[in-house]
Amino acid sequence: MAFYAGLMDDAWVGDMRVVPQPGDFYGGWITSSLDGQIKAAAGTLHW
């Protein structure tokens, strides 16, 4: 199964809530276990 977290009311991985990756290009999702800057966040346009 695949889905876009941004289209869901809530999305969970086990007991951890995930949030959509910023921007409108990427369809990924982010958990609190990720560390560092996320692609598509403000200031990452030309990586």
Entry summary:
It is built from no helices and 3 strands. It has strands spanning 11-13, 16-20, 29-30.
Structure, described:
With 47 residues, the chain is mainly β. Helices cover 0% and strands 21% of the residues.
Throw out a few tags for this protein:
globular; mainly beta; about 45 residues; 3 strands; about 20% strand; three-stranded antiparallel β-sheet
Kindly state the number of beta strands. 3
Low-pLDDT stretches: none
Main sheet attributes: strand count, strand direction, barrel closure:
3 strands, antiparallel
What sort of overall outline do the alpha carbons produce when their principal axes are compared?
A: globular
Helical content stands at under 10%
How many H/I helices? 0
What is the strand arrangement across the widest sheet? 1-2-3
N- to C-terminal separation? 30 Å
Mean pLDDT: 76
Strand content: 15-25%
Overall structural class, as computed from helix and strand content, comes to mainly beta
Order of helices and strands: EEE
Question: What value does the Rg take, in angstroms?
Answer: 11 Å
Overall domain count:
1
Summarize the helices and strands and which ones pair or pack.
Elements: E1 11-13, E2 16-20, E3 29-30
Antiparallel strand pairs: 1-2, 2-3
